[in-house]
Write a structure and sequence with these properties.
GMP Synthetase, Chain A, domain 3; alpha+beta; 3 strands; about 80 residues; single chain
């Protein structure tokens, strides 16, 4: 069975094309012991005023749907 980190990476790989269409990207940095996903926003996403909305409403929702044990998602 895949680890939590592997399952999170699979979820990110599914949504990455949509993020890249807007000139951005997202990198999985880590999954903490308390199941918080740490991401690095890159490209157009880095510093974009809408990036927190994308992170919470889009990325976090999709990751939690694929990996229900995730407590949350944060950008570092």
């Amino acid at each position: 069975m895949a680890t939590i980190k592997e399952r999170v990476q699979e979820a990110l790989d599914q949504i990455r094309p949509a993020i890249q269409m807007d000139g951005g990207d997202v990198e999985l940095v880590d999954v903490t012991e308390d199941n918080v996903v740490q991401l690095r926003l890159m490209g157009a996403c880095h510093g974009c005023p809408m990036s927190m909305l994308t992170l919470q409403a889009g990325i976090e929702r999709i990751v939690k749907a694929h990996v229900p044990e995730i407590a949350g998602v944060e950008a570092i």
